Amino acid sequence: MEKVDLKNFDLEELEAFIARHGKERFRARQIFKWLYQKGAVSFDEMSNLSKEFRRELADSARISSLVPEAVEVSMDGTRKYLFRLDDGNSIESVLIPEEDRNTLCISSQVGCAMACEFCLTGTFSLTRNLSTAEIVNQVCAVKKEAEVKNLVFMGMGEPLANLDNVIRALRIICCDDGLQFSTRRVTVSTAGLVPEMDLLGSAVTVNLAVSLNATTDEQRDRLMPVNRRYRLKELLAACKRFPLPGRRMITIEYVLINGVNDSLDDAKRLVKLISGIPCKVNLIPFNEHEGCAFKKPTQQAIDIFHKYLLDKHFTVITRSSRGTDISAACGQLKGRLDSKGGDL
Fold first, then answer.
1. CB neighbours of 291 closer than 8 A, spacing ≥ 6?
2. Residues of the chain with pLDDT under 50
3. What is the pLDDT of residue 44?
4. In CA terms, which of 41, 144, 185, 212 is 20 to 30 Å from 227?
5. Annotated domain spans of the chain
């Protein structure tokens, strides 16, 4: 019989698993702390459990982990990790250092089915969802070598298309007996899966980022095929009803593309669209990559767009490019390694 991976269980599920072994439920909390706070990779390390219980666990369960196959380090300190999964597929995580915190960007799928025109990951298409264990193990692996303050689900894949595993991973990540992240420091990004936005908000407390990138349905249809299923009106209504604990805001992500969506008229339409939504805006100058015809915006276009939003009293940040001297865009390191049989 195949052994179950304990890292696929949230605390409540692990309690049920332990109860089936005839043990007290509080043992699950002990095991959780060993897995996520002490980084145990074997049952032998769990010294506060009896040897007999450890043997029972080893007979029916296992503890998975991830080890980076490749790491690229930028001159600005950004670190990109490539992880090889048990089935041979690969995913990426990126650690972004800042003055007062490190932010880790993690993946939720192998590839992506959203097929956004400007996104490199979409060119890989979707292979499969990540398991809960594969999601949390990205965090566990990076935390072994660096402090991680903020966590963002903005890597490979559409998190809300893997909703069950993402919610379970969030419960582990934010659990006091688990990875102990504050919900204020965890953000889930979506291209706009409206029903799943509602389900996410009802299941967990988390920050939400919405990848908008356009100010008309015609424009967004071209850039993001998901808009053909959920129009801007539906998406913005879902943003307005998303539950936000006091004074938190939704992050509106807007990739600026030269001559496509970076005009002053676009900025004016954006203001009209998001008025009434408690939000801040992240402007992201397009990161050019091979095989894509889109170009990065001019600095003048960025400045005009940014200033217009500021003048309308929005909180707005223009995200600076990080890791430009390494495989900076999501999917670049995977693409390079996979095309070369795993060799840099």
1. 123
2. 328, 331-344
3. 96
4. 185
5. 4-62, 68-339
pLDDT at 340: 43
Asked, colleague to colleague, whether 4-62 and 68-339 share their fold, the answer is no
Instruction: State the pTM of this model.
Output: 0.93
Confidence (pLDDT) at 344 = 33
Fold of 68-339: TIM Barrel (3.20.20)
Q: Distance between alpha carbon 95 and the CA centroid of its chain, in Å? A: 12
Residue 140 one-letter amino acid? C
Query: Residue 168: which residues within 8 A CB-CB, separation 6 or more?
Result: 8, 9, 10, 13, 132
For the record, the structure tokens of 304 come out as 């005009």
CATH topology of domain 4-62: DNA polymerase; domain 1 (1.10.150)
CA 212 to chain centre: 16
Cite the active site residues: 92, 330
Q: Are 240 and 279 in contact (CB under 8 A)?
A: no
